[in-house]
Amino acid sequence: MKNLLLSLMLATASAAAYAQVDVSGAWIRATVPSAKSSGLFMQIKSTREAQLVEVRSPVAGTVEIHQMQMDGQTMRMHAVPFVALPAGQTVNMVSGGYHVMLMDLKRQLKEGETVPVTLLIRKQSKGTETMSLDVTVKPLTYSGH
């Protein structure tokens, strides 16, 4: 009985060590037939300090985490190596801020379909975990909240 209790306690402690991440409001902008890129937007909240370090999707040849920033009077977009996920805070990945770019699209993304996406989260303990999502494609004119 002691061994079973100890095993349960260790399993619970181990599970609590993982960065528990919730993703809400995830969506991808639909494309016209000739488009080669689209954006992925969402809200991410982690219970522990973590980082979003990579995003993957089979619909794109390249997937990058991007940030929009003002450079003087010009808004510029550039890739970033990660997005910090502070413990207990929601990080909004939106147009005009941090977001994910799906590039070298292999096909048109049509309104209403779902696209598989995998997030790679680096935990404070330096380990990584993956999170699989099925993200809905919204109309080309959709702007989120």
From TrEMBL:
Gene3D superfamilies: PCu(A)C copper chaperone. Pfam families: PCuAC. It comes from the Bacteria. Residues 1-19 form the signal peptide. InterPro entries: LpqE-like, Lxx211020-like, PCuAC_sf. Keywords: Signal. PANTHER family: BLR7088 PROTEIN, COPPER CHAPERONE PCU(A)C. This is Copper(I)-binding protein. It comes from Duganella sacchari.
